[in-house]
Fold these 3 entries.
Entry 1:
Amino acid sequence: MKYGARPARLLPWTGSEGKPCYLLTDGDGPLSRLADVVEATHLDMAEELSDHAAALLADARATPEQLRFMVHRMREALTAVRRVAESRGMRCSLKGARQSDQFRERSICISAAERGSRR
């Protein structure tokens, strides 16, 4: 999908039927900022869930039900993080964008890379 020279942004949530939602924008509107906040929240929640999973796996008293519940939550988190990665990858691979747009998109990609290096 394209909006002028920019591809449509894949949003970090789905529609009522589970289909992808896209935003046609210049990247500076209120819905873009909301999507940025939701993406950051998904990433933070996945990190917290990963820490909790490590603690649960280290606990010899963890029950199969607890582990199964954790696997379900991990799957949800992985799905959300995959959508964030796909959306950011689409924005990072823009070709022929204006220099200022490239700088803004590059900063998103760098922020994502920095997040991964903190682990």
Entry 2:
Amino acid sequence: MNLKNAYNAADIQSWLVSNLAELIGVETDEIDVNEHLENYGLDSAQAMILVSKLEKMLGFQPSPLLLWHYPNIAALSQRLAEDLPQDAVIQDTTNAVNTPPALDLNAEAVLDPTIRPDALPPVTITEPKHIFLTGGTGYLGAFIIKELLEQTNADIYCLVRAANPLEGKSKLEKNLQSYAIWDEKYKSRIVPVVGDLALPLLGMGAEQFQILAANIDTIYHSGALLNYVYPYAPLKAANVLGTQEVLRLASQIKLKPVHYVSSVAVFESPAYAGKVVKEQDDFNHWEGIFLGYSQTKWVAEKLVKIASDRGLPVTIHRPPLISGDSQTGICNTHDFINLMVKGCLQMGYFPDVEYMMDMSPVDYVSKAIVYLSMQPSSIGKAFHLQHPQPAPLSTLIKWVQSFGYPVKSIPYEQWQEELINNVSSVDNPLYTLRPFLLERWSDEQLTIPDLYLQSKRPHISCEETLKALEGSSISCPPITGELFMTYTAYLIQTGFLNVA
């Protein structure tokens, strides 16, 4: 298809401005066509909504990777308006077979040899006065900020992409406000640090980087680019090289403990399928990890382990998928769990598959991370924040039915057919998730949901973590109908879900 026959760059640009503004809830005059789309807080799910709406407009589905190659509206509009060969843009995800390029993650796990924490004298930090945090404009990061403000007297220096510190502080405050955890009394203790996780020296000048390295006592690294569509390469700068820069910061001027938020995804290799994986077990197997995001988390944690071996004090925290606040129900409505539930409700069908819901509430995860990081005995250890009592998907479906939603459970193959044949509107989140749900990977040509069946996953043990939390009053809320009702009430209140 020749796009010039239908639309020019100005038409597409105007459409993108209008739809992006609607998507993130701002006025069109607040959209800068030369601004990086990530700076608008556009996550992978929202990006796919944008791509899916483009498909309706243009008559075919542009590859989501165009958002990486052309990351602002001006460049993307121009690219879409060019006369491209058909196979350069069209991506048929209905029966797509994904053969990722050969990638040796072991070869990627090389820490800059100039990062030498062992050249600095050891430290014992009991009451940090200055804490550096990444990921403060994210979901979990917001709750970690809240916990640090409540559990310490430290000022929290937050890395944030912004034009200036004032804008950066506003972004951080608005993020906490959006989850109803902002308290004005903490305003003076949040210090924006303008930078970028994906750039050398975290996007700072060498002098500023050195000043920060001299001032900071402790680091919490929870920042990452979360995208379930991108392959390893576009995620590497933020997730892998960004972690390396954090380790560099921790190893300059004076030693600073690093509390790293990793993921249970480091055990996604089929080598662990069906096996019990404990907190301190090695994670040497990477073959068969197909999601680019999971690949970056495997490599990044390897870098942290290398730094630990060189003398850096670290703790590693591996959460699963993270659900909403167990007390308020407030959650990230653009996360995979909520989009899947909403999409299945609209479709009228859930897949009958052997999935275990092992997501942990965000308040439990953030409280556990901060508490464990403050225990001297935690240094050098990893912790699993997996839900200790996961519930099967079938239980969720029964709860949904008990609330009056007319849904059925059908075989997975039939559910896929429904998705392909009957979900044709961008109003259903499943439509935007099709690249994730339908692309086929591995020698067995399985979809990503196939790869996450219980039989293909490890059993993540959190026994040591629960023992380390004993006496703290921190416990993971059980997955019950009451908790699900709390989440559902919030999602209905915000208009994300309709009343049954």
Entry 3:
Amino acid sequence: MKIILATNQHEMSVAIREKLNCKYTHVVVVDGDNVIEARPEAGVVKTPLKVFKRLYPTYEYREMPGDVNKSRALVGKPYDYKGLLGMGFKVYSIQDPKAYFCCEVVGIAADNVDDSMSHTLLPDDFIELSTAVCV
């Protein structure tokens, strides 16, 4: 399964990078000409790849074992604001098991991530869980 690690200069991305000392602030699953992602204003959605690249001009393609169908099944689910808050304070018990932020969408689809741990991952964690891909 192909994923993309990304960041931009949006104030939320800058805050995440500073608070968590990370390179990337977002991770998505590639699904053909779309990506499956969790967006605060929309929940889990499919976004055209071209639109995603405009929103996130700094990105890196990666490959990891997984099933894109598991991410597709989450489209339409709400955004996990509690999980994002928990991640920011490293209190991983703070999360909504029926809602998803970006790392959960990718982690649930990944074969090498325990579903129950996906809410503890940061986008940068997927660097170690995946391999670089030239596109």
